[in-house]
Amino acid sequence: MTTAAAPLRWFRFAAPAPFYALAGRLVPWCWALCALLAAVGLYMGFFVAPTDATQGDAYRIIFIHVPASWMSMVLYLVMAGWAAVGWAFNARLASMVARAIAPTGALFTVLALWTGMAWGRPTWGAWWVWGDARLMSELILLFLYGGFLSLVAAIDDTRRADRAGALLAIVGSVNVPIIYFSVKWWNTLHQGASVGIGSAPKMASVMLTSMLLMTLSFWAYAFAVVFMRTRAIVIEREIGARWVEAAA
Amino acid sequence: MNWSPVNWGSAEAFFAMGGYGFYVWSAYAVTAVCLVGESLLVAKRHRDARRQVGVSHEEGNP
């Protein structure tokens, strides 16, 4: 008689306790990656990338503005995705991850708007323009993050709160493609896409490389912070479970 | 790709950013403060949660 092979436990990390341990081990690597990518990206952005012909050195805000903006959108979709999983499969860890993503996503949205204003003032002559499709839709993204956080905080029953938040997050997801295509669909002050799938970038390669390195750095940052926050939420929610006594 | 570094000439020129120093550095400063701040707050949240476990243990909770 042969021994059956142990089944692959695909969903091992869908449980809070194994995830807590794994995330704890990954966090330092995420920080290391974040720091390394930022160091290289910022060096290239400030000491290798040349001054822009039209915008002078004001364009260097791009190395934080675009990464923050991309992160604000990506994190929203990831948040909505995990919230949906938490709802559909009654997987509470997935809902915890969604809650962990929200503050970081909101922060990147604020940074996208702030750095955008700092860039807009010297180049467009305006800090802010009401009615501009991209600016408005990014601002709405901030309200969606805030709405998610407020909603889950307002409902006492944790799992009901998770489900309500998931609904808001999912419905709000429509805003992300709106932000992305806003510069194509409407006449906006904001410039059109310089980088896209299926076409050559309309940007000097050093500038593009620096921008991509900073994007990856922000992504590593997001992983680090979201993992840390998820771990905190796991402890907060699972307090009383025996494994928490040992791990905390 | 030209890898020779941009020659800023002097530290003053670097901080001036071609006249746009105020905008560039305020953008970077706020970003740095926010990201560092968020990391510290999250670390604190985790610490407080772990402390709560200890407290709950003292209060006789299993």
Approximate strand percentage of chain A? under 5%
Secondary-structure element order of chain A, as H and E?
HHHHHHHH
Radius of gyration of chain A: 21 Å
Number of strands of chain A: 0
Question: What overall geometry of chain B do the principal axes of the alpha carbons give?
Answer: rod-shaped
N→C terminal distance of chain B: 63 Å
Q: Portion of residues in helices of chain A?
A: over 70%
The largest β sheet of chain A comes out as: none
Largest interface: A-B, 44 and 37 residues
Q: Whole-number radius of gyration of chain B?
A: 23 Å
Give the SSE order of chain B as H and E letters: HH
Span between N and C termini of chain A?
44 Å
Q: What do the pLDDT scores of chain A average to? A: 93
How much helicity do the residues of chain B have? Answer: over 70%
In DSSP terms (H or I, runs of 4 or more residues), the helix count of chain B works out at: 2
Can you tell me the overall shape of chain A? globular
- Strand tally of chain B is 0
Structural class of chain B: mainly alpha
Which terms would index this structure?
heterodimer; A: 248 residues; mainly alpha; 8 helices; globular; B: 62 residues; 2 helices
Short description:
The complex is a heterodimer of chains A (248) and B (62). With 248 residues, chain A is mainly α.
Question: Could you please describe the fold and organization of this structure?
Answer:
The complex is a heterodimer of chains A (248) and B (62). Chain A contains eight helices and no strands. Chain A has 248 residues and is mostly helical. Chain A starts with 15 loop residues before the first helix and ends with a helix. Helix content of chain B is 71%, strand content 0%. The model of chain B has no long low-confidence stretch (mean pLDDT 86). With 62 residues, chain B is mostly helical.
